[in-house]
TrEMBL record:
<dbReference type="InterPro" id="IPR055178">
    <property type="entry name" value="RsdA/BaiN/AoA(So)-like_dom"/>
</dbReference>
<keyword id="KW-0274">FAD</keyword>
<feature type="domain" description="RsdA/BaiN/AoA(So)-like insert">
    <location>
        <begin position="188"/>
        <end position="335"/>
    </location>
</feature>
<keyword id="KW-0285">Flavoprotein</keyword>
<dbReference type="InterPro" id="IPR057661">
    <property type="entry name" value="RsdA/BaiN/AoA(So)_Rossmann"/>
</dbReference>
<dbReference type="Pfam" id="PF22780">
    <property type="entry name" value="HI0933_like_1st"/>
</dbReference>
<dbReference type="Pfam" id="PF03486">
    <property type="entry name" value="HI0933_like"/>
</dbReference>
<protein>
    <submittedName>
        <fullName>Uncharacterized protein</fullName>
    </submittedName>
</protein>
<dbReference type="InterPro" id="IPR023166">
    <property type="entry name" value="BaiN-like_dom_sf"/>
</dbReference>
<feature type="domain" description="RsdA/BaiN/AoA(So)-like Rossmann fold-like">
    <location>
        <begin position="5"/>
        <end position="388"/>
    </location>
</feature>
<dbReference type="InterPro" id="IPR004792">
    <property type="entry name" value="BaiN-like"/>
</dbReference>
<dbReference type="InterPro" id="IPR036188">
    <property type="entry name" value="FAD/NAD-bd_sf"/>
</dbReference>
Length: 390
């Protein structure tokens, strides 16, 4: 049996960061992954350019049943620390919008950087390793793969969430947590497009391709000002992906298509213009036509509407509400909500409170960030913290 100080399961963002940090401390580290490539999610992230962090990382951008949990790790390894690492490797990057940082060239830069950090720290990485069994051995663990048996003092689970099963996502981490008696909170797809109820699909499908800035709001009052995109399957775009993480089946979602007060301004400035013409100057024309038909709005010059009619139109446009049929699920979701309950883990080290030397890092735990580089920052921060102690 091969003996290691640390075994990290999962050669993704959090696992590689943890492995490199532990290796730098002189620990003998082995990373095992069942995939045939390192960091596959990193490679396809951010449209191939990897939105690797965000200038505005703060705890409120993370969903977690234990809201204070993320504070320590995010403060100990910040976005500035990761940016310094990216700078050290001379990777060119730019801010796209809302503080989101992307590689100028390719997400491959980030994978190469992590691999180099691991190599320099003497970390071994084994791909295509199918893990069959993990067991407790004294203070440490044994890990059996299809062709080899290993032992280690510290075991780090960095197997990520359930999104994109085609590129290697698996429930391995949740099962392992349960095997060791840790609570796993129910999982569901997050940062994911909505599908529509049949009647909405019929009226909105012709809008596929239309995109506009909105404010999306969930029933709990969470709001995101970003773009809404109509698709053949339903609703997408950053506003929808963001709000999907706050949405529960059966709930409604509201979209502010026009800011409050804009219609009153229109009535004052262009009283003779018909509603359809005026709206066509504010919103995409295809959307205006669909809205008038769908919401049963009569088209006439703005000055001819009664105050009550105007209030009703304003209500439809500032709080256009619908009940999604569901989400596209893990097939297209960027993240998994829920996971290993953080009440079971140390917020400083990521170690399981009741299983010494067992660690969980990255998305496998119940921490989910907003769209915009937050999920990678959680992978870097949590992986780094575990890397200091394993
Ligand atoms: C399409 C897409 C785009 C995204 N874009 C962004 C973005 O731009 N910015 C951002 O912040 N976040 C983005 N995300 C989210 C981000 O990729 C994840 O939150 C992040 O990768 C989580 O890191 P992780 O190390 O926890 O898991 P992962 O990076 O998913 O790594 C988990 C690793 O574990 C391995 N593994 C799983 N099961 C097993 C098993 N049974 N045995 C052995 N190995 C196993 C997998 O093969 C994988 O290599 C995106 C996600 C997707 C799907």
């Amino acid at each position: 049996m091969q003996a290691w100080d640390v075994i990290v399961i999962g050669a993704g963002a959090a696992g590689l960061m943890c492995a490199a940090e532990a290796g730098k401390r002189g620990r003998r580290v082995l990373v095992l992954d069942h995939g045939k490539r390192i960091g596959r999610k990193i490679l396809m992230s951010g449209g191939g350019r990897c939105n690797f962090t965000n200038y505005h990382v703060e705890p409120k951008a993370f969903l977690c049943a234990n809201p204070h949990f993320v504070k320590s790790a995010l403060a100990r390894y910040t976005q500035w620390d990761f940016i310094a690492l990216v700078d050290k490797h001379r990777i060119a990057f730019h801010e796209k919008t809302l503080g989101q940082l992307f590689c100028d060239d390719s997400a491959q830069n980030i994978v190469d950087m992590l691999v180099k950090e691991c190599e320099q720290a003497g970390v071994s990485i084994r791909l295509r390793a199918e893990i069959l069994e993990v067991e407790r051995l004294g203070e440490g663990f044994t890990v059996a793969t299809h062709d080899e048996a290993y032992s280690c003092h510290s075991l780090v689970v960095a197997t990520g969430g359930l999104s994109m099963p085609k590129i290697g996502a698996s429930p391995f981490g949740y099962k392992l947590a349960e095997q060791f008696g840790l609570r796993v909170l129910p999982t569901r797809a997050g940062l994911v497009p909505f599908t529509l109820q049949p009647e909405d699909k019929q009226s909105l499908e012709p809008l596929a391709g239309v995109s506009l800035p909105v404010v999306a709001e969930s029933e709990d009052g969470t709001r995101f000002a970003e773009n809404l995109l109509f698709t053949h399957r339903g609703l997408s775009g950053p506003a929808v992906l963001q709000i999907s993480s706050y949405w529960q089946p059966g709930e409604r979602v509201c979209f502010e298509l026009l800011p409050a007060g804009r219609l009153a301004e229109g009535v004052a400035d262009s009283p003779n213009q018909e509603l359809k013409t005026w709206l066509g100057r504010q919103l995409p024309k295809r959307l205006v036509e669909a809205l008038l038909a769908r919401e049963g709005l009569v088209n006439k010059p703005l000055k001819q509407y009664t105050p009550r009619e105007l209030a009703a139109i304003e209500e439809r446009l500032t709080a256009w509400s619908l009940k999604p049929g569901g989400t596209e699920g893990y097939r297209t979701a960027e993240v998994t909500l829920g996971g290993v309950d953080t009440h079971e883990l140390s917020s400083k080290t990521m170690m399981a409170n009741k299983v010494p030397n067992l660690y969980f890092v990255g998305e496998v735990m119940d921490v989910t960030g907003w769209l915009g580089g937050y999920n990678f920052q959680w992978a870097w921060s949590s992986g780094w913290c575990a890397g200091q102690v394993v």
